[in-house]
User: Which sequence fits this backbone?
DNA sequence: TCGCATCTTGACACCTTCTTGATGGCAGCC
DNA sequence: GGCTGCCATCAAGAAGGTGTCAAGATGCGA
């Protein structure tokens, strides 16, 4: 069960502080993208939109506050400023520029984590009811949030493994997924699992999904390679 | 024509600090309601819902953190804690209890005002969506403000944990909530809790809510994943 | 201090799900 | 034809999740 943690963009030029935060945050399950300069941060923020930004002021190539202001122009991602500047005017400027919180160095890790939780809480609340993750492949509808699958309006009741299997294939509809990939994504990076097990679960999934499991409409076998979910456009 | 500023509930027992904040805030156009005790604050919060709460910890009649937690049970109003306690553990506890920010005394007025602006900014963004103190799912009615539940007109009396559990599921009616989510939302981000405990509380909640706990109408089990509250539209 | 409500933990039975092994089909190749 | 590799299906035991009961711990108000 590897739920991917929130993605944090860390904008910080001191290597020491970066190393420290990297260790702390990855240990807590956060995924991390790092940037040493504002230029790099701009690219990272657009190419891989984070769930939260940890922003150090006083970077080599410009003021972090301007970066925060530009970010606010197009996204509501929580911005948490970490700065050595403790002057009140600095805090006010950053907060009014769009930052959501301001922590002065040196700071306690637990406090930082707690404030990050607050920021993520706010973001989650704002986003709720907006994005409904829904996969649709022809008559096959997969609602990720509700964990429901339906073919031609008929609801299925997949077991946990069948669900993971189906979502994996549906997310890559049309592409071939190798046995190896399936084992890694569904069963985790550990070993000791066999391709045979995949076949058994595929069979039970077909029994639920297909009208004629012997002549699959959706779950196609790629002999010697793996499996593939038929795309909507396929014949 | 003086536009009415945001309504601030100030919970603070020191007369000196109250006088100071009253002067500062009214000068900036805020309207103010003051409370010296938690009991008074509870009444004020319900009778005159504020736009923001300034909460001092260490009040004469109880812990301000509990007040914050109760408040969070039915409203999303921003809570800004002002405290003389500067210990990190205190901050973490308050923030995890639902506070949105934590300022230690002595503080700068400008910083406080900036943080209040941030909080109000968040609230304004969140309120553009919804703010429903009454959840209705079929014959199930949940009054968040009054902390009351009723099925088919019959009132339930849930324990604190059962209440949190039910509200969590009702807020996400139809969606599956994983065991992990339940533990995090109901018991807090700390660890050391087991899914077994969830099952026990779910059982007792079913006993109160369902006519036949063995054949649940509302509280559905998603094997291997979590639980789900049936939507009104479901069969 | 006692009693009450609540929460946690352990034990156990029940059931679903998962894994593994066995068997047969099918195609390609010697 | 016989062999080999790959796949699908079935069946049975193993493993793990779920619901329930009950005992002990904890906290709170009388």
Assistant:
């Amino acid at each position: 069960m590897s739920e991917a943690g929130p993605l944090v963009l860390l904008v910080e030029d001191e290597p020491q502080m970066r190393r420290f935060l990297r260790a702390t945050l990855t240990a807590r399950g956060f995924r991390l993208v790092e940037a040493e300069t504002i230029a790099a941060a701009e690219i990272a923020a657009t190419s891989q939109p984070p769930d939260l930004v940890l922003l150090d002021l006083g970077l080599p190539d410009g003021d972090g506050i301007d970066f925060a202001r530009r970010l606010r122009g197009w996204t509501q991602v929580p911005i948490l400023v970490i700065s050595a500047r403790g002057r009140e005017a600095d805090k006010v400027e950053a907060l009014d520029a769009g930052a959501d919180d301001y922590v002065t160095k040196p700071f306690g890790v637990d406090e930082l984590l707690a404030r990050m939780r607050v920021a993520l809480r706010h973001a989650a609340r704002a986003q709720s009811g907006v994005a409904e993750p829904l996969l649709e492949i022809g008559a096959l509808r997969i609602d990720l949030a509700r964990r429901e699958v339906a073919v031609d309006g008929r609801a299925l009741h997949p077991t946990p493994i069948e669900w993971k299997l189906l979502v994996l294939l549906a997310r890559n509809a049309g592409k071939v997924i190798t046995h190896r990939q399936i084992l890694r994504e569904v069963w985790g990076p550990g070993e000791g699992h066999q391709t045979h097990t995949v076949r058994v679960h595929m069979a039970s999934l077909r029994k639920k999904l297909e009208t004629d499991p012997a002549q699959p409409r959706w779950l196609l076998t790629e002999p010697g390679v793996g499996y593939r979910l038929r795309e909507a456009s396929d014949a």
About this structure: DSSP finds eight helices and twelve strands in chain A.
